Amino acid sequence: MVLNMPRSKKDETEETEQTEEYVEQAEAEISDKKEEGKELTLEDLPGVGPKGAQKLREAGYTDLMAIAAASAGEISVAADLGELTAEKVISAARQALDMGFKPASEVLEHRKEIGKMTTGSKALDGLFKGGIETQTITEAYGAFSSGKSQLGFQLAVNVQLPKEKGGLNGTCLFIDTEATFRPERIVQIAEAMGLDAKKVLGNIYVARAYNSDHQMVLVEKAKDVIKEKGIKLIIVDSLTNHFRADYTGRGELASRQQKLNRHIHALQRLADVHNVAVYVTNQVMARPDMMFGDPTAAIGGHIVGHGTGVRIYLRKSKGEKRIARLIDSPYLPEGEAVFTVTEKGIGD
Ligand SMILES: Nc1ncnc2c1ncn2[C@@H]1O[C@H](COP(=O)(O)OP(=O)(O)O)[C@@H](O)[C@H]1O
Ligand SMILES: [Mg+2]
């Protein structure tokens, strides 16, 4: 069979007539399920069915968000559907996800719920205009040993503080992809702050991700534990290393980026829907061979795309000093802050 074979006008007319009624019915079912608060699956989409849903999953479209963000052409090829049906599938997914317009007053109400937590350094908090925010992805990128993980450990402790002490009175979900999570280091930081280290450790839920697919599944599962455990901070340390390892060939670059984008989208959605902060790290390889261009550019491109999230670039300075530079923030002024990494954790 030839994929992507152009369809004749006659085919399209028949397809329209066949699907129109079915689509109406499916859309009514989607509304009903939504009102009942039921979780919607790919099978609920009009014209998809169990077989189509399986094909979509195999092609990496594992949830409604992935479909809502896809183009009709992509869905048509992935699930072997006509373009017209694909368009309807996408619009049904968007409907199911409430991706329509909403009044700015509602947006403002949602934004009023944004919480901020301290990094442990006044200078760094100042760079962020108050601290790390909920509903936002904060990305730290930099070379090995620049302090990315240490900042994560400190945040995992700080999130547990009461609001008046710069915390969010919540717990932390820590996705460890490099096997660099150290509970002993958490104990050290917690004790330096005069906290009950055992209690602090009990409020950090750690999951080790073994590959990029596993990492994506962990994020998908996260929504189940966020409410139950009172999670207010999700850490992915590092966001990118598995993707880099799992998609090595030149020809795989596009699919790597696509998967990574989907992963980031899932994280952004968790941040938004559950009002949690998300902190991700991204290691930059030293490129001594690089003579031109920016040797500090994050591999995998701008992971957290323009317009979403906050990115900081970390670099080593003298001894325990580290320098953080704010990069391309849509609403924060550019600038740098000096902080320290010591036995006690992050400080000034
Ligand atoms: N217990 C500690 N006491 C003092 N400094 C520490 C301690 N643990 C880590 N560090 C500092 O943090 C650095 C490692 O930073 P880290 O955040 O783990 O790097 P990366 O950016 O690769 O994640 C070490 O080189 C050291 O300077
Ligand atoms: Mg690290």
Low-confidence segments: none
How many domains? 2
CATH topology of the largest domain: Rossmann fold
CATH architecture of the largest domain: 3-Layer(aba) Sandwich
Instruction: Output the number of helix runs.
Output: 13
Strand percentage: 15-25%
| Major sheet size, sense and barrel closure | 9 strands, mixed
Helix content: 40-55%
Widest sheet, order of strands: 5-4-6-7-3-8-9-10-11
Distance between the termini: 64 Å
Question: In one word, what is the shape?
Answer: globular
CATH superfamily of the largest domain: P-loop containing nucleotide triphosphate hydrolases
Identify the CATH class of the largest domain: Alpha Beta
For the secondary structure, the number of strands is: 11
Ligand roster: adenosine-5'-diphosphate, magnesium ion
Q: Mean of residue pLDDT?
A: 85
Give a quick summary of the entry.
The chain has 348 residues and is of the alpha/beta class. Helices cover 44% and strands 17% of the residues. It has two domains: 9-96, 5' to 3' exonuclease, C-terminal subdomain (DNA polymerase, domain 1), CATH 1.10.150; 109-347, Rossmann fold, CATH 3.40.50.
Q: Secondary structure elements and their pairing?
A:
Layout: H1 9-35, H2 49-58, H3 64-68, H4 72-79, H5 83-96, H6 104-112, E1 116-117, H7 122-127, E2 132-133, E3 137-142, H8 148-158, E4 171-176, H9 183-192, H10 197-202, E5 204-208, H11 212-229, E6 231-237, H12 241-246, H13 253-274, E7 277-283, E8 310-316, E9 321-327, E10 336-342, E11 345-347
Parallel strand pairs: 3-7, 3-8, 4-5, 4-6, 6-7
Antiparallel strand pairs: 1-2, 8-9, 9-10, 10-11
Helix pairs in contact: 1-5, 4-5, 8-9, 11-13
This protein binds adenosine-5'-diphosphate (ADP) and magnesium ion (MG).
